[in-house]
Amino acid sequence: MRLLIIEDETALLEQLASLLEKEGFTVERAANGEDGGWMACEFALDLAIIDIGLPDVSGVDVIRKLRGEGKAYPVLILTARDGWRAKVEALEAGADDYVVKPFHEEELLARVRALLRRASGWASAAISSGPFTLDTRAKSLERDGDAIELTAYEYKVLEYLLMHAGEVISKTRLSEHIYDEETERDSNVIEVFVRRLRAKLDPEETLNPIDTLRGQGYRWSLPRG
Asked: How far apart are CA 192 and CA 164, in angstroms?
């Protein structure tokens, strides 16, 4: 999952980015509203974290801009304890949730995970489909209760496919959502990750959980649990 943080306090920006990267997210950074607003509209994102107290372009205006451009991904705002008016304004502009500064890291992570699940129609951190259960908090996978070991990028590909179960996901879209903007992308690498996932998830080739649609991409084919 690819996230954007827009925060003008350098120390807080790096703290948040480091926290989220340790949790396996791909993170883009913007230190002001002008750059952040452009990235929010131009990058393929799954969620944005926006400080509404930005000094140049306000966080509220950034939210209005991205919603005006038709971007529907979740937005989590960071707000000062006494900034209730700005918080209400941001929610009215299209933000989905908020965290009050100073905040506990676990609370922020929980809100990020909840927004991502809600956007994909999942209710809990444990995503079940067929015999598989993906724990998005622990970053772990089980089949009928037996653990399956995945590399970091195998997990990212599987999580994205499962979170969008039933949708056809192109190689380009997968690449955009698991790599940051500066990483060189190769669609052949995505093919390798999918091939390895199939071997680990379905070694007997009886379930076929990941469909390939020639010329279109991949689709998680098993029903949601």
From this structure: 20
Q: Locate CATH 1.10.10.10 in the chain.
A: 126-220
d(CA 195, CA 219): 13
Angle among Cα 188, 169, 119 to the nearest 5 degrees reads 135
Task: State which CATH number among 1.25.40.20, 3.40.50.2000, 3.40.50.2300, 3.30.300.20 fits the domain covering 2-120.
Answer: 3.40.50.2300
pLDDT 10s digits, 135-150:
999 999 999 999 999 9
Cα three-residue angle 158-112-91, rounded to 5 degrees:
135
Determine the average pLDDT of the residues in 36-46.
97
Sheet holding 140-143, edge to edge: 126-129, 132-135, 140-143, 146-148
Q: What is the pTM of this model?
A: 0.89
CA-to-CA dists, residue 116 to 2, 155, 185, angstroms: 11, 16, 24
